Amino acid sequence: MSEQREDPELDYEKNFTIFSDSSEQDVSCAKIFWNSAILHPTLESRLVSGDIRQRLKVADGIQPNSYAACESLAVDLKNEEFMRNVFLKQKIDERLMYMEKAQKREEILALLKKQREERIKKEMISRPYQKKKKTEGERSLVKDDSEEIQEAIRAVAALD
Questions:
Q1: Distance separating alpha carbons of residues 132 and 122, to the nearest angstrom
Q2: How many Å apart are CA 49 and CA 15, to the nearest integer?
Q3: For bias kind Basic and acidic residues, which ranges apply (predicted)?
Q4: How much is the pTM?
Q5: Per-residue pLDDT tens for 23-61?
Q6: How far apart are CA 142 and CA 148, in angstroms?
């Protein structure tokens, strides 16, 4: 246990500067110097700064006028009403814009339907005068017939 008591004394000597072999006057001057040379933390790291106003102003002895409070309340109500009117106007404008777009869409769809009906009507009028389209079966028969004709022509040419 005696060793543990000696250790704090050694730690004490390691952590503090000891002025040995110096005069008393030098020791006292050095202590005063080192005690005055304290490093303060930077301004940003301080919680309270002397050059920044930290406190609110103290209220004056004069009571604020009750009329001023009513006036500010009236201004707030007017401002709120104005903002509400602006919001409603924006909603109405937006609704009108969408209604116009829907009306244009309906007009376009009606025009397309009308054009389609006119095209079908014209096709129905011209249908009896159009050539009949051959079906696949008729096309293959015609193709086969032409091949047979070509073979017959070759055979006749080979006989000469």
A1: 17
A2: 31
A3: 135-144
A4: 0.35
A5: 888 888 887 887 777 666 676 666 665 666 656 666 665
A6: 10
Quote the number of domains for the chain: 1
CB 34 within 8 A of CB 17: yes
In one letter, which amino acid is 58? V
DSSP readout, 78-126?
HHHHHHHHHHHHHHHHHHHHHHHHHHHHHHHHHHHHHHHHHHHHHHHHH
Mean pLDDT confidence for 79-89: 92
Which structural domain, as residue segments, surrounds residue 7? 1-36
**Looking at the domain assignment, is residue 81 inside a domain?**
no
Label residue 38 left, alpha or beta by phi (over 0 means left) and psi (-120 to 50 means alpha).
beta
Residue 109 lies in a domain: no
Q: How far is CA 101 from CA 92, 93, 97, 110, 113, in A?
A: 14, 12, 6, 14, 18
| Amino acid making up residue 150 | Q
Residue 19's identity, in one-letter code, is: F
Asked, for residue 92, whether it belongs to a domain, the answer is no
